[in-house]
Task: structure prediction
Amino acid sequence: MSEYDIAIVGAGAAGLAAAIAAGEATSESRLRIAIIEGARTPGAKILVSGGGRCNVTNQVVSPEDFWGGPHPTIRRVLGAFDVPRTIEWFKKLGVRLKLEPDGKYFPVTNDAQTVLDALLGRVATLGIKLIPGTRVISVEPLTNHFKIGLSKGSPIHADRVIIATGGLALPKSGSDGAGISMLRSLGHTIVPTTPALAPLILGKSSDLGGRFSEFSGVSMDVRLRLRRNRQVTAELTGALLFTHFGVSGPVAMNLSRHWLRAKLEDERAALHVTMGSPTLSSSEAADQWLIEQSAKHPRQHLATILATLFPERFAKALATELGDVRTLAHLTREDRLRLAGMLSDLPLPVTGTRDYSHAEATAGGVDLHEIDPRTMQSRKIPGLYLCGEILDVDGRIGGFNFQWAWSSGHVAGWAAAERD
Result:
């Protein structure tokens, strides 16, 4: 007889959600559930998310906010435990959420510890055993149960296993890819992994885009385009932050996964990233805007006009690219066309991204085709369930990856509890 009905590997967001869902699924008899966590203190990734505030979810979450596996599968999982149910669930846990103007939900305390304490508190109330500081080194499917090898002590046995070990992002939190390696050895197909939601590294040069360190600390709304062999393959808008090594901020971090996936697919592909005003979709639109501004404000200083699009420090640098041109009236047609190009598509010399230790998520993971979206059960190994970041699903910044963790964790937990 197994010691546990359900063993959950990983006590991050998805693992804790799965444990609670399993613990709450049956009212007649309490299941024997254990969570095995490699770190001494669980939930490290929850505590550092959202600048320590924990961006729990978003007002609107759809499959289009995610990349990786097929959207119909993602839609089914998200629909099984959607945003309203997530908000209500946290309310029952004692965590009230507040909606901010950008659509993000945070705890009203503005403290991620509130979220983690509530999750761990519910785990304890349900009588779920938490085994911290112990790594799972193997999961062996036997005839009617699983044998789970541990880094210390004797192996344990469980009727069902839920793997929620995360990807490779923020390895200090315990996400070191061990779960992915384990599932590969069990026969699952692993979509090659790369960092996702990581800052972009720029190469230094005399060009404006290569002088990024001059603007360190400057933030602005932009549109970023990624071209692969001259074809636009990704176009995103949002806030960008200049840093001493390149650019960060939501739009740069969202673009990072597209840049890395393109490199993964073809190391020799010619990749180009450009930055422009989100209100000027093309050089033609930018040129028309400059013509209109020249007619309205011919004596206005060029930097002053450009400051309506970008922060003053960047606007001044942009204006100096045209040499002695001071006012709109001094713009020649050649100057205007050159400036229009910079307003819509200023080259950013991206050379790479920060590594996993600076990434907020992992792209790639277990192929979603090998998971039943109704239950999160492996199509290869009955009784084995997967949830969270270990799967080939990664969302954009804004609480989307947490929503995937809550949704997939609940589906896995419910299904594992009902499989008797």
Remarks:
- The chain has a mean pLDDT of 95.
- The radius of gyration is 25 Å.
- The chain is about 30% helix and 25% strand.
